[in-house]
């Protein structure tokens, strides 16, 4: 699951975002290869979104028409792309993050291309520098969010750390996503692995399970159906005031609130954050590699990077790209998020998820 963006959340609340989300199952052109060469297809998880005018600017300047094939949550989309790599569905894949990057690279999903503007990417977000098979596009922090009204009414201080979530005061309050099926769920698991190490993370989850953590399949269900602090959760009568979501979730509650609140109704437990980075790459055997390269260049332009926050509720990775004031006020990036070396994730991810499933779901 990767629907961490509030594109999905807002649509679930019946809000129109004025975004373009084209979808296609391959080229529908009947004019042969000449027409096909003018179309570039982006394969993505379900949360891709871009402003109409920004996409139109790219299409006009490049001469390419962009088609978007949305292929489910991040894990599902990556797995399908790997299975179809010899005859790919498109030219560029967007949405593989640092939790799944090694799987994509080890399976030869991408070919090398250093996008224009790659030298403007902040060093912390660069990856695969020797081969340039992926281009960093955005970043965000997976964190526990809390319902301010609940904690105020119960005169209870919100949890500030992973350790706090084990305290009796927070029993039966947290809902998280399945680490085997959900990107934020996996990120939260990796955050605990980074915090407690190889020997301690499993014991932490045993204690968290004993303290009543609830696990659901994906972010949409957790945030909009189970979390009492979200607009969707309020409508659904949700009863969990803690949820694994994103540091950018509170500004979304303000921006898309109806009526728009003056302060964010939700907050972030900043000691529970794990930093996520998303990448795009030119697919191996892409039918239109030149169009794919142009599209990757576009993803690093300042125009696109500054358009992303209010469309996909993520932070830009390009140096000097501005973010909306609401992000700075209501959803600043965590100052000291948990991180893990990609090689460490690659070596342990599958075993960690398997062990987590046995510990938590059985």
Provide an overview of this structure.
The protein has 362 residues and is of the alpha/beta class. The chain is built from 15 helices and twelve strands. It has helices spanning 6-12, 33-36, 52-62, 74-83, 101-106, 148-153, 183-210, 219-226, 231-236, 249-255, 289-299, 302-307, 309-312, 325-330, 342-360; strands spanning 19-20, 39-44, 50-51, 65-70, 92-97, 110-111, 135-147, 174-177, 214-216, 242-246, 266-283, 315-316. The strands form two sheets. Strands 2, 4, 5, 6, 7, 8, 9, 10, 11 and 12 form a ten-stranded mixed beta sheet that branches. Helix 7 (183-210) crosses helix 15. The protein is globular. Residues 1-30 have low confidence and may be disordered.
């Amino acid at each position: 699951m990767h629907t961490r963006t509030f594109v999905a959340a807002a649509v679930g609340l019946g809000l129109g975002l004025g975004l373009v989300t084209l979808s296609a199952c391959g080229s529908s052109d009947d004019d042969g290869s000449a027409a096909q060469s003018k179309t570039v297809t982006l394969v993505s998880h379900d949360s891709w979104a871009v402003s109409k005018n920004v996409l139109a600017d790219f299409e006009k300047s490049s001469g390419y028409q962009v088609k978007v094939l949305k292929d489910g949550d991040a894990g599902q989309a990556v797995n399908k792309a790997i299975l179809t790599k010899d005859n790919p569905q498109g030219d560029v894949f967007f949405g593989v993050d640092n939790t799944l990057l090694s799987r994509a690279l080890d399976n030869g999903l991408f070919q090398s291309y250093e996008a224009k503007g790659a030298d403007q990417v902040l060093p912390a977000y660069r990856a695969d520098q020797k081969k340039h098979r992926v281009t960093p596009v955005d970043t965000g922090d997976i964190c526990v969010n809390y319902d301010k009204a609940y904690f105020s009414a119960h005169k209870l201080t919100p949890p500030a750390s992973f350790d706090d979530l084990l305290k009796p005061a927070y029993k039966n309050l947290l809902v998280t996503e399945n680490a085997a099926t959900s990107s934020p769920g996996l990120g939260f698991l990796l955050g605990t692995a980074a915090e407690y190490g190889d020997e301690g993370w499993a014991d932490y989850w045993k204690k968290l399970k004993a303290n009543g953590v609830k696990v659901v399949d994906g972010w949409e269900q957790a945030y909009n159906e189970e979390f009492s602090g979200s607009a969707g959760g309020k409508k659904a009568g949700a009863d969990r005031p803690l949820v694994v979501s994103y540091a950018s979730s509170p500004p979304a509650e303000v921006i898309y609130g109806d009526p728009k609140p003056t302060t964010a109704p939700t907050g972030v437990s900043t000691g529970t954050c794990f930093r996520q980075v998303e990448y795009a790459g030119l697919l191996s055997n892409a039918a239109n590699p030149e169009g794919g390269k142009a599209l990757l260049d576009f993803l690093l332009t300042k125009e696109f990077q500054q358009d992303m926050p209010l469309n996909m509720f993520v932070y830009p990775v390009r140096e000097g790209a501005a973010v909306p004031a609401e992000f700075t006020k209501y959803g600043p990036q965590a100052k000291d998020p948990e991180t893990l070396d990609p090689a460490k994730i690659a070596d342990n991810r599958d075993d960690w998820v398997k062990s987590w499933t046995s510990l938590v779901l059985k």
